C-alpha cells in the first residue's frame, strides 16, 4: 500500500471546474431568518465552493456577518432581499424554482436520499432556534432532514446548509 500524496494548490486549481458558475442559474442558499451572524459568512464560503449564490434579507448587521466567516479574495455572489422573505419565496416558486427547506417535518426526506438539483433550486434555512416559520414551510416543495445520533436535535445554519448544498450540487 502506498502513502497518500497531498496535491499542491496549483494541481487542485487545475482539477476544479473550468468555468465560473452562472449566478442565479442553478442553486441559491437562502438563510432567510438568520440568528447568528458568524454562520452567514461560513455558509457564504460553502456557496463559493459548490458554485451557488446566496440570498439574504437586508438587515443592518448582515454585511458584517457575511464578512466574518468569508475569507475569499473574490467578490462573493450575494443578492439582497428587500421586504418580506415569504413574498420573495413566492416569487421564486412562481418563476419555476424548486423550494427546498432544511427542516424537520413529517414528510422530510433524509439527506442521503436527496438527489442533485436538476433545475434552479432555492435551499431555505430557518432561524436556528425556531426553524422555518409556518408561512415558509407552506412554500416548500420538500424538506430535508439531517439525521443525528447525538444528544443535540439540530445543527447550526452554516453546517446544515453546507451539508445540503453539497448534496444538491451533486458533489457528494
Automatic annotation (TrEMBL):
Coiled-coil region list: none
One example of a Gene Ontology biological process annotation: methylation
Name under which the protein is recorded: TrmH family RNA methyltransferase
Keywords carried by this UniProt record: Methyltransferase, Transferase
Pfam families: SpoU_methylase
Molecular functions per Gene Ontology: methyltransferase activity
Gene3D superfamilies: 3.40.1280.10
Residue intervals of the tRNA/rRNA methyltransferase SpoU type domain: 34-166
Record organism: Nocardia aurea
Amino acid at each position: 500500500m502506498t502513502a497518500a500524496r497531498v496535491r499542491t494548490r496549483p494541481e487542485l486549481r487545475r482539477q476544479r471546474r473550468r468555468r465560473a458558475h452562472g449566478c442565479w442559474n442553478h442553486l441559491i442558499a437562502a438563510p432567510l431568518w438568520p440568528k447568528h451572524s458568524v454562520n452567514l459568512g461560513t455558509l457564504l464560503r460553502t456557496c463559493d465552493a459548490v458554485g451557488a449564490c446566496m440570498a439574504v434579507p437586508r438587515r443592518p448587521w448582515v454585511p458584517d456577518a457575511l464578512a466574518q466567516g468569508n475569507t475569499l479574495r473574490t467578490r462573493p455572489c450575494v443578492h439582497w432581499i428587500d421586504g418580506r422573505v415569504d413574498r420573495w419565496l413566492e416569487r421564486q416558486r412562481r418563476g419555476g424554482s424548486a423550494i427546498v427547506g432544511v427542516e424537520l417535518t413529517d414528510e422530510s426526506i433524509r439527506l442521503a436520499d436527496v438527489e442533485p438539483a436538476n433545475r434552479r433550486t432555492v435551499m431555505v434555512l430557518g432561524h436556528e432556534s425556531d426553524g422555518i416559520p409556518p408561512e415558509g414551510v407552506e412554500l416548500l416543495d420538500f424538506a430535508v432532514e439531517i439525521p443525528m445520533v447525538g444528544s443535540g436535535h439540530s445543527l447550526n445554519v452554516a453546517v446544515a446548509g453546507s451539508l445540503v448544498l453539497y448534496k444538491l450540487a451533486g458533489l457528494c
